[in-house]
Each structure stands twice: as structure tokens, then as C-alpha cells.
Design a protein that fits this description.
Length: about 300
């Protein structure tokens, strides 16, 4: 049986059985599609996201006119079309099923956003995601886990990821919401700050050399700061997009205990400001660190491949 006919049968099954969009149902649908001789190359059956959930996904990702939204497995194109029509964004929809791509293009023309959105028949696993500022997903738990290392490899720090119904395993969501019985998960891609960073502390006599060593998994990190001969742990490491901050509880590098470091990560550099324990920051207290690139490792724990 051809892919298109099977797609219609799936839609029919959903309507007749009133099947929910919960994970088990998607699995069941995929099994049934295969049992019907359906599209073997599809990793997820077609089940559209309800409009109320689409709105929530776009709200959580705070989509605006400056975004480029990728929907991986775009179905009838509703997520990128809504992003373009209601928020002025540009969008790219990817689907393996030619019938879905045909529908998406027609829907984009009807919604008068065909100039802002592109639909491509392509395997989501082979899609280059580097230009995306927002990625939307309604896949399956197993597929989310399979593409997770790809997200960490290709997406820029600060890119927002939203998933309908399914989480990302150990990569805990930054925020979640429930709408009309569906879960929405939201993440901001964290910068990779793993490895060894060095700088000379401004203001300290002769300029004391500082070495920051960070171990990172997803958006969580811990580590130590060595200044001269003294080593201190860092705590409350926060990584959101390209922003990193942490507190050092012991005096280090001429700074008092409780000093907070904030910075912006750009590849192998961090530029930032140092805040005194009382919260003030004074001119000349900036820090500028460089990382030895060979010390950075993957921050997705399931990723066995080198960076
Ligand atoms: C659950 S539907 C989600 C549709 C749409 N994103 C939405 O939320 O309304 C999953 C879609 O993924 C597509 N799909 C399945 N495997 C795929 C793959 N390997 N590459 C690209 N698309 C795929 C299916 O054809 C289907 O349209």
C-alpha cells in the first residue's frame, strides 16, 4: 500500500477512534501504518498538533518577525504557517511525505505567506539546522532522543526548541506547560562552556593568572577556579543561550568570597563583568577568558562522537 493512501488511513483512524495525541497513540498509529504496508521510511505517523497547542508552542518560544522557525516533520505546515502569519517569522517545514509537502504549500498559499515559508521533502535526520533560531517538534520520544545530539551539534546557543508532548530524556526542559491535555516542553540551547578557560585577573598585583575548569552536561555545569596557588569550587553555574554566570565562594584572584562572574560566550572566548559580593560591579573588573579548544567536549551525554 502506498504512503499517501496509508496517510489517509491514519487520519481516518484518528477521527474514527477519537485517538488522543499522547505518545502511546502515536506509537500505536505508527505500528498500524506499518501493519497496513505503510511508509517504511517515516519515523513518525502524521498527527497534527491542535491549534491551541501550536499557539502555546509559538508563545513559549516567543517567536517574532526576526525568527527562522524550522518544523521537523511539518505535517500540513500549520506551525510554520502560523509563525509566519501571526508573528511575521520566516519558516522552513521539513517532511518526508510528499503529500504533506504538497498540502503545506497549498496551505501557505491560502494563508498568503508563501513568500515567507519554504517546505522541503527531506529526511529530518539529514536536514541542516544551523540557520534555525527556533525548532519545533512533534515526533516521538525515541526520535527526540535520536536527534538530540544533532541539535547540540548544529544549533547556535540561544536557539529555542519546543516539543509537543515529548521530552528530551535527561536534557530537562527549561520550562513546561500543559494546554488542553497536551504537554509542551521548551529549551534554550546552552553554549558549550566545557573545558579549561584562562585569563589574567584585572587589578590583581602583577595580574594573577586564573584557570577555570568546567564540566558540563546539557545546561548544567560545575567546576573549579584556580587563582595562583589557591583553588575554589564554583557554584550556581547558570548557562542560558550564550550567557554564563557562576559564583566563587572563597577568595580567589584578589576577589572576595561570594563574587559572581557573568559573561557572554562566543566560541572559545568569554567576555564579561565581575560582581562584588554586595552585588555592585566596578569599572575595570571585567574578565576576558580564552579556552583551549582541545579541552571542550560534547555536552550531550549520549553523544559518543568528538566535537
Ligand atoms: C506527528 S506529525 C507532526 C506534524 C506537525 N509538525 C504538527 O505538529 O502538526 C509528524 C510528521 O513527521 C513526518 N515524518 C516522519 N518521519 C520523518 C522523517 N524521518 N523526516 C521528515 N519527516 C518525517 C510525518 O510525515 C508527519 O507529517
Amino acid at each position: 500500500m502506498g504512503k499517501i493512501r496509508t496517510g489517509r488511513l491514519i487520519a481516518l483512524l484518528i477521527m474514527c477512534a477519537g485517538i488522543s495525541t499522547a505518545g502511546v497513540s502515536l506509537h500505536g498509529l505508527l505500528e498500524r501504518a506499518h501493519a497496513l504496508g505503510g511508509p517504511d521510511d517515516l519515523d513518525v505517523p502524521y498527527v497534527p498538533t491542535p491549534e491551541s497547542v501550536v499557539e502555546k508552542m509559538l508563545d513559549m518560544a516567543a517567536v517574532t518577525g526576526s525568527d527562522l522557525v524550522y518544523d521537523l516533520g511539518c505535517g500540513d505546515g500549520r506551525i510554520v504557517i502560523a509563525a509566519a502569519k501571526e508573528r511575521g517569522a520566516h519558516g522552513v517545514g521539513i517532511d518526508l511525505d510528499p503529500e504533506r509537502i504538497r498540502e503545506s504549500k497549498e496551505n501557505a498559499r491560502e494563508a498568503r505567506v508563501a513568500d515567507r515559508v519554504t517546505f522541503v521533502r527531506q529526511d529530518l535526520y539529514n536536514t541542516d539546522l544551523r540557520d534555525a533560531t527556533v525548532v519545533t517538534l512533534y515526533l516521538l520520544p525515541s526520535v527526540n532522543l535520536e536527534i538530540r545530539p544533532k541539535l547540540f551539534k548544529e544549533l547556535k546557543p540561544g536557539t529555542r526548541v519546543v516539543s509537543h508532548d515529548f521530552d528530551m530524556g535527561e536534557w530537562t526542559a527549561d520550562r513546561t506547560a500543559e494546554v488542553d491535555g497536551s504537554m509542551v516542553y521548551f529549551w534554550v540551547m546552552p553554549a558549550n562552556v566545557s573545558g579549561t578557560w584562562e585569563w589574567t585577573m584585572p587589578g590583581s598585583a602583577g595580574g594573577e593568572r586564573c584557570v577555570l575548569r568546567l564540566d558540563q552536561e546539557f545546561q548544567n555545569a560545575r567546576g573549579t577556579l584556580t587563582a595562583g596557588s589557591s583553588e575554589a569550587s564554583v557554584r550556581d553555574v547558570r548557562i542560558s543561550g550564550d550567557q554564563v554566570s557562576f559564583t566563587v565562594d572563597e577568595a580567589a584572584g584578589g576577589k572576595a568570597a561570594g563574587t559572581r562572574y557573568e559573561g557572554r560566550v562566543n566560541g572559545n572566548t568569554i567576555e564579561g563583568v565581575i560582581h562584588n559580593p554586595d552585588g555592585s560591579s566596578s569599572a575595570g573588573r571585567d574578565w576576558s577568558a580564552r579556552r583551549d579548544p582541545s579541552t571542550a567536549v560534547s555536552i550531550d551525554s549520549s553523544d559518543e562522537l568528538p566535537l
